[in-house]
Design goal:
single chain; mainly alpha; 3-stranded antiparallel beta sheet; 2 helices; elongated
């Protein structure tokens, strides 16, 4: 016997109602106000975010850039050195294997 019941008819809808509750999704939270000095340093609530001196930060940046360049070009630096000093050119391969492959510069 076939049923005359319609699929998804009004009688099949469950009741999902619940009493209104406190939603924690849209609560106002306190955010610190970030301001900037004329030289670009960030202040949070009037206090410096980074307390390092600008000269110290510049020194660190320059050191990191030089270390990166040495890391990238270390093999070519050694080859250029030995090509200028032809008396020691025959030792180049030995020294490259010994020293250049073992150089590691930490960040």
């Amino acid at each position: 016997m076939m049923s005359t019941h319609l699929m998804n008819g009004a009688q099949d809808v469950p009741d999902f109602y619940s009493a209104p509750g406190d939603s924690s999704i849209f609560k106002d939270t306190h955010r610190d106000v970030i301001t900037y000095t004329e030289d670009g340093r960030a202040l949070i609530a009037g206090k410096l975010l980074n307390k390092r001196e600008p000269s110290e930060m510049w020194n660190q940046l320059i050191l990191q850039m030089m270390c990166q360049r040495i890391r990238v070009h270390r093999e070519s630096i050694v080859k250029r050195f030995f090509s200028r000093h032809s008396k020691t050119a025959h030792k180049r391969d030995t020294i490259e294997r010994k020293y250049v492959t073992n150089i590691s510069i930490s960040d």
